[in-house]
């Protein structure tokens, strides 16, 4: 199997991995030849990348970072809670969040257990799921990334639980912002952007008064858009004024935002998202947190086709824990010529080789 961009798929291509909706129902099953209309529909649904069948790599194992059951429960709980919130009734909102907090705590503990048990680098591209609302999946993704960072930094269990709860609720204040503004495909006006920025304060005000939500979890909602140099919002605080949880969630939030399909732009690949973080290291984001993130997340996901600096190209088939940019590659071509006998190279042991390009086109469409 290979990971390719949906826009490059040809009719007749078969999916290696099924596509689900948020309720766990199959939208497109694996092994079914895709029609032109099916491919167009996938693009309309915001599916940027899919796994397709490829006989040379169909033996490669894809493993989700958390179980389907935990993922489904988490997203459905986020969606149910967020949709219950009322823009004008703070008393009702407090009751909704009080009732949901125990459920969220249980979900966070299950996620921590599964992430600790999974020794592979975290890759969310293994889960191709269609959702109605970006905020619900974003909240879960940021939770997974934040907990992966926290585990890599060896934070105590209780701190992991608090940062997990803070991450899953970090955007709860967006439910107080008009959906017309949140989902606007065009550039926001200055007034609209100022309204969106208020979600940090809205979230903090919602969470800080609840006895079932730790105050530091409320500060995650308050601080995740603050930056080390003071250029963030809502308060423009700097450096050590920002809690470590806020710094961690800031990294997770930006990475998921740029690597997710949005109404106003296409998703970046994970390696491109990491470059965004590196560009902000030291003045926007904590460098130590970026390194912890780098050590725990798959920057070149399994199934992606890459070219090496010596002209060889192939598919990522396995990760090296702690070495996100040094995976195992199954070499399939040499300077564009297909090899009769593919072989694997472990980039961890071959420091002379580096990945110079990611290829997202289906080879069949390239040759057409």
From TrEMBL:
Q: Annotated Gene Ontology MF terms?
A: hydrolase activity
- Domain HD-GYP spans what residues? 113-309
Instruction: Give the CDD domains listed for this entry.
Output: HDc
- Name the source's superkingdom: Bacteria
Keywords of this entry: Hydrolase
EC number, UniProt record = 3.1.4.-
Q: Can you say what this protein is called?
A: HD-GYP domain-containing protein
User: Which species does this protein come from?
Assistant: Bacillus salitolerans
């Amino acid at each position: 199997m290979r990971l390719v961009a949906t826009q490059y798929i040809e009719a007749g291509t078969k999916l290696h991995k099924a596509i689900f909706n948020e309720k766990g129902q199959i939208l497109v099953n694996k092994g079914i030849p895709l029609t032109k209309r099916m491919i167009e529909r996938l693009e309309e649904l915001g599916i940027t990348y899919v796994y397709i069948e490829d006989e040379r790599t169909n033996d490669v194992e894809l493993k989700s970072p958390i179980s389907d059951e935990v993922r489904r429960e988490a997203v459905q709980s986020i969606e149910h809670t967020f949709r219950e919130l009322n823009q004008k009734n703070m008393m009702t909102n407090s009751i909704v969040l009080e009732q949901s907090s125990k459920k969220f705590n249980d979900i966070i503990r299950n996620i921590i257990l599964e992430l600790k048990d999974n020794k592979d680098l975290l890759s969310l591209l293994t889960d191709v799921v269609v959702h109605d609302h970006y905020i619900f999946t974003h909240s879960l993704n940021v939770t997974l990334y934040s907990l992966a960072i926290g585990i890599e930094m060896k934070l105590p269990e209780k701190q992991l639980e608090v940062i997990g709860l803070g991450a899953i609720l970090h955007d709860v204040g967006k439910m107080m912002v008009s959906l017309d503004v949140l989902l606007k495909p065009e550039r926001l006006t200055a007034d609209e952007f100022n309204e969106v920025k208020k979600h940090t304060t809205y979230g903090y005000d919602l969470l800080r008064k609840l006895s079932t939500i730790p105050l530091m979890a409320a500060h995650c909602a308050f601080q995740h858009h603050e930056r080390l140099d003071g250029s963030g919002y809502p308060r423009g605080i700097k450096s050590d004024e920002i809690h470590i949880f806020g710094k961690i969630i800031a990294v997770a939030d930006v990475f998921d935002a740029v690597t997710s399909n949005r109404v106003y732009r296409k998703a970046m690949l994970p390696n491109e998202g990491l470059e965004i973080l590196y560009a902000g290291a030291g003045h926007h984001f904590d460098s130590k947190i970026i390194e912890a993130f780098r050590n725990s997340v798959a920057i070149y996901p399994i199934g992606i086709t890459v070219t090496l600096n010596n002209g060889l190209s192939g598919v990522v088939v396995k990760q090296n824990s702690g070495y996100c940019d040094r995976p195992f590659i199954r070499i399939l071509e040499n300077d564009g010529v297909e090899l009769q006998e593919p072989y694997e190279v472990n980039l961890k042991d071959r420091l002379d080789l580096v990945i110079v390009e990611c290829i997202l086109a289906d080879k069949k469409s390239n040759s057409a």
